[in-house]
UniProtKB/TrEMBL annotation:
InterPro entries xref list: NUDIX_hydrolase-like_dom_sf, NUDIX_hydrolase_CS, NUDIX_hydrolase_dom, Nudix_hydrolase_domain
Biased composition (Polar residues): 23-33
Record-given protein name: 8-oxo-dGTP diphosphatase
Entry annotated with the keyword Zinc-finger: no
E.C. designation(s): 3.6.1.55
Gene Ontology terms: biological process: AMP biosynthetic process; ATP biosynthetic process
Molecular function, one GO term: bis(5'-nucleosyl)-tetraphosphatase (asymmetrical) activity
Length: 174
């Protein structure tokens, strides 16, 4: 799987006749470049093999999905390569320098005009992480089980984690 060079053609089904789309969904696309009406975003997962934990964040109270737990990431800028967006978002949100290892996931969020592309990455500077309080409330290291079952976890994280776990042996042999 690789992020497309061209816009994706599969998108969420339109609202049934007589039902208007949820106006809160406009906040997803407002001011952001879209591809076939969908914002393309990136999420990045870093794995710490010594304790089998994932680098995750609790989102700021000032962003969509306030105080939810998820992987760092954000929207791709107009014309920006997906890999560049992933590197930029990691640096902006938590001051992380990473090496992207593999794109392992893409996902059309069913209730929003949003498509996510997920990357497995290696953290280069684990001792110098610092969250941007405008975007991130705190940095967390969670096990797979904690990441999936935490009551504040964004539900689609479990789908990303399924794909990450399949990719781990290629990059972190046992």
């Amino acid at each position: 799987m690789t992020a497309p060079d061209n816009p994706r053609t599969n998108s969420a089904a339109p609202a049934p006749k007589g039902i208007s789309p949820d106006p809160s969904l406009q906040s997803v696309t407002q001011g952001r470049p879209t591809h076939n009406g969908r914002v393309h975003g990136v999420v990045v997962a870093c794995y710490r093999p010594e304790d089998q934990k994932w680098l995750m964040i609790r989102r700021s109270a000032h962003v969509p999905a306030p105080l939810a737990i998820c992987f760092p990431g954000g929207a791709r800028e107009h014309g920006e390569p997906y890999e560049t967006a992933a590197l930029r978002e990691m640096h902006e949100e938590i001051g992380a320098d990473v090496e992207l290892l593999e794109q392992v996931w893409d996902y059309d969020v069913p209730d929003k005009p949003l498509t996510l592309f997920g990357y497995l990455a290696k953290l280069k500077n684990p001792d110098s992480l610092a969250h941007n309080p405008d975007e991130v409330h705190e940095i967390l290291w969670l096990t797979t089980e904690q990441a999936i079952t935490h009551p504040d976890a964004i539900p689609n994280s479990r789908f990303f984690i399924e794909n990450l776990n399949k990719a781990l042996p290629r990059h972190y042999p046992v």
